[in-house]
User: What shape does this take?
Amino acid sequence: MGASNATVVSLTEREITADLIEGCRRGEREPFRALYDAYKDKVYSICLYYFHGDRAAAADATQQVFLKLMTTIGQFRGTADFSTWLYRLVANTCLDGARRAKAREARLAKEVVLDTLPGGASQEQDLVRAQRARLVQEALSGLPPNFRLAILLRYFDDLSYEEMARVLRCSMGTVASRLNRAQKLLASKLEVLRNS
Amino acid sequence: MMFRKHQPPADDPMRDLPLVKAPESVWASIEAALNAGEQPRAARALGFRWWQPAVAFLVILIAAAVYWTSTRFNRRWEVVRLEGAPSIGLQRLGGTGLIAEGQWLETDGSSKAEIRVGAIGTVQVDANSRVRLVAARSAEHRLALARGRIRASVTAPPRLFFVDTSSSTAVDLGCAYTMDVDDAGNGQMHVTLGWVSLEWHGIESLVPAGASCRTRARLGPGAPFFDDAADSFKQALNEIDSGMRGTDALETVLRSARVRDTLTLWHLLLRVEAGDRRRVYDRMVALMPLPSGVSPDKALQLDRETLKHWREELAWKW
Assistant: This one.
């Protein structure tokens, strides 16, 4: 556990070693916390924007992802990157959650929440950045779930086509097509919002 | 095509979305499941056992039960009927009841209720109102007001009690206030004690006792104003807050502003077009000389620390 203890703070993906995952398999708390700390913000952000800014839904989904991770980590064999495996859990949780919460989507799209923008040099800059972020979030909310998920996975962890294909269980061609169409759709929705 | 990274456009709008920190409550929920005995399942390399699906199902059931218990039963606030027959979800409230996270409290035209906000205060829910309990945790007491009026009275350290509406989040800084929201999401807050911060997408309005602030759907909170300000001042401010950029409205506000109305002017400084900023600044300085330590250049550049220091000095007159 010594090595694992040393990596609890500010762990990066590269530092996630077989020892750490082995510690999780044995049910040890600290390696699990280390994995959680390394990925929690990315997972939460993907869920938050996927669920239209609904913080409660994002928190629930993030919790489900890490509980699933904990209970199924024995199945992770190391043949794929750990992050690919984790993001498959994220994708499944988001898509399952979306099916259950479909009726709420229209309302939540209007309740976008962005209250954690890092502080800039001036309040004016903060305001401009917040407005831009709000527009992007609103446009993102209008994308179909599969497009939204693809674009969020690409943006928050810069996965390759091959990694995204494994996460989304589709071909690399489908990934490329989805990303391309998602970006065009996002740009057109942003244009409409900016002009409205 | 193997391992090729997707190339986003150089002006990728997604760059505008910030990474958001996961709240501490997520880890707390996971720890609760861990403490309830949640453990990793053995690797499949050990071989399939017929009982594994049953155990996994049981573990998930326990985790779900722990989560359900912690969110639905341990996180509830008491609600007292004051008049008529308010309802929580589908249940009519007789005398007292409990509201859990995620549930709605609704009053009709002839009913009122009072929510006991944990141990830190009370919220009276007036007639024709709809309120949801969002979070009932020691570090976050949060309601959402969909429509109607609430009267909140909170005695707690700042930033423990929040009320979300579609056009703002009211952050309690130790205070008492009323808040109205109509069906379109427009509203008004009136503070009777202490301070409230109204926040929305990077916009912040600080409202002290004796002042009010309007909020508008898709525009957020306007600039706060004292209730005893001139009617012409309030009317002109309403036009500015509504997005009407007429020079006349700003001129009226500046001309009829008193010393304590620097509350409003300080907020306008951050919101008017760059071309009008100097006019607002000049009027503020005419009403109350610039305090030492506040540089005119930095104030006009909206330097965060400078504005904060200036506001703290102005607040003696508010």
